[in-house]
């Protein structure tokens, strides 16, 4: 089976050798990420992975500690005091039992699990719970937006005397058709980790294609509402971001299709394109979430300046829906960056525990 990760030294959890780890060079990723040098895999080939590098450094800097240890501080040019402290901690821990205070047991357990896969190391969470949360929040968001547009705003229509009904199709399609379907496409590798990779890829690309088409149709409905009501087009930040988002989404899809599906790039190209694909995909996804938030804000502001009670049930419902969408998006992003398993899955040995 062709792998999109190319010849990266991927090690399945089951292939992790038992006993004390032999690898003393467990941290090229951290070292190179921190010093902005290209990562090298075990064969010494350049193999810089922006998502992994970014995510390795972020938890380190945020938590003020490092769960992976560099063999020699001199190999790591870390510029912040927090990071230097963390590396010193790592060196001590290689040679002696370090008293961690009250949290010693918990940290030790964490370190046992630590590998160089960013999420397994830095976040210490698995994807599964976040996919469950995302599904529940997606269902809630879908129900809320339908209640708003159907119950409070009078329903949905593609042709109607009341042009507001045409507008109502816009938020419904943008949220349920575009954002929720796009999220499911992103999470597919984590929701069905045992699915055959080619099937998962096909589902990923089909769901993204449906999301893009429904999103484009939702935007068409907003334009139709404007044109039928004699309102100017593309005057707001929301609309500019909206056009930008759907265009980038389309570009991402075409690049993804050509690189990973048909005709499919050479393994080395796929290998280097994959982290950029995931990074750019998440960027476009977050942009879509931000655009939707602006849309809710804008519509509610229009309604409130038209007399809607600022503390009424409808205003509360719209704000609450937007909040649920934020939580939903956060769960999807964590599910995407967290690993399926919490073992070190990227071919690095686990940390020696003294
Ligand atoms: C990612 C999701 C979304 C995208 C890509 C998007 C995109 C767009 C675009 C391109 C327009 C311009 C139409 C025109 O100028 O004729 C527009 C209009 C509008 N959208 Fe959205 N939209 C999204 C979600 C939402 C949501 C969830 C709402 C909530 C109600 C909303 C509310 C509005 C409103 C009120 C307008 C008319 C005012 C304006 O042009 O800014 N949008 N949207
Ligand atoms: C707008 C469309 C797309 C977006 C936003 C997108 C986004 C993403 C994201 C965020 C990931 C990382 C998921 C994770 O790590 O769990 C990913 C992985 C991937 N995507 Fe896409 N994608 C898109 C289209 C495509 C297309 C058309 C293909 C063609 C087959 C494709 C192939 C892949 C592959 C092979 C992976 C790697 C899965 C793995 O970890 O093995 N994507 N995509």
From TrEMBL:
PROSITE patterns: CYTOCHROME_B561. The keyword Transcription regulation does not apply. CDD domains: Cyt_b561_ACYB-1_like. SMART domains: B561. Keywords: Electron transport, Heme, Iron, Membrane, Metal-binding, Oxidoreductase, Transmembrane, Transmembrane helix, Transport. Its main location: membrane. Residues 133-337 form the Cytochrome b561 domain. Residues 1-47 are annotated as: Disordered. GO terms for molecular function: metal ion binding; oxidoreductase activity. Its cofactor is heme b. It holds the Pfam family Cytochrom_B561. It is a multi-pass membrane protein. It is found in: Membrane. The chain crosses the membrane at residues 132-153, 173-192, 204-225, 237-262, 274-296, 316-338. GO terms for cellular component: membrane. Two-heme-containing cytochrome. Catalyzes ascorbate-dependent trans-membrane electron transfer by utilizing a concerted H(+)/e(-) transfer mechanism. This is Cytochrome b561 domain-containing protein. It comes from Panicum miliaceum.
């Amino acid at each position: 089976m062709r792998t999109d990760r190319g010849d990266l030294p991927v090690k399945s959890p089951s292939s992790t050798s038992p006993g004390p780890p032999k690898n003393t060079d467990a941290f090229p990723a951290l070292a190179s990420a921190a010093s902005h040098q290209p990562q090298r895999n075990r064969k010494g080939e350049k193999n810089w992975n922006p998502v992994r590098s970014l995510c390795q450094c972020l938890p380190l800097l945020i938590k003020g500690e490092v769960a992976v240890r560099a063999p020699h501080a001199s190999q790591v040019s870390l510029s912040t005091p927090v990071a230097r402290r963390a590396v010193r901690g790592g060196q001590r821990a290689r040679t002696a039992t370090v008293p961690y205070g009250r949290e010693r047991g918990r940290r030790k357990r964490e370190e046992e699990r630590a590998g160089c896969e960013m999420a397994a190391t830095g976040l210490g969470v698995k994807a599964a719970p976040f996919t469950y949360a995302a599904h529940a929040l997606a269902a809630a968001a879908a129900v809320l937006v339908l209640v708003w547009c159907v119950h409070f705003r009078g329903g949905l229509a593609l042709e109607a005397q009341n042009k507001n009904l045409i507008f109502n199709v816009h938020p419904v399609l943008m949220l349920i058709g575009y954002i929720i379907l796009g999220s499911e496409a992103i999470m597919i590798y984590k929701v069905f980790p045992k699915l055959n990779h080619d099937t998962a890829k096909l589902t990923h690309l089909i769901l993204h294609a449906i999301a893009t088409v429904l999103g484009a149709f939702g935007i068409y409905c907003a334009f139709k509402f404007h044109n039928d009501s004699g309102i100017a087009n593309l005057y707001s930040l929301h609309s500019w971001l909206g056009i930008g988002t759907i265009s980038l989404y389309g570009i991402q899809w075409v690049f993804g299709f050509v690189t990973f599906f048909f005709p499919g790039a050479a393994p080395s190209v796929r290998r280097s394109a994959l982290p950029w694909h995931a990074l750019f995909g998440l960027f476009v996804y977050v942009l879509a979430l931000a655009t939707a938030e602006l849309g809710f804000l804008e519509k509610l502001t229009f309604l409130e300046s038209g007399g809607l009670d600022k503390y009424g049930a409808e205003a509360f419902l719209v704000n609450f829906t937007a909040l649920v969408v934020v939580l939903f998006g956060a769960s999807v992003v964590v599910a995407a960056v967290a690993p399926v398993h919490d073992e070190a899955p990227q071919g690095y040995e686990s940390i020696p525990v003294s």
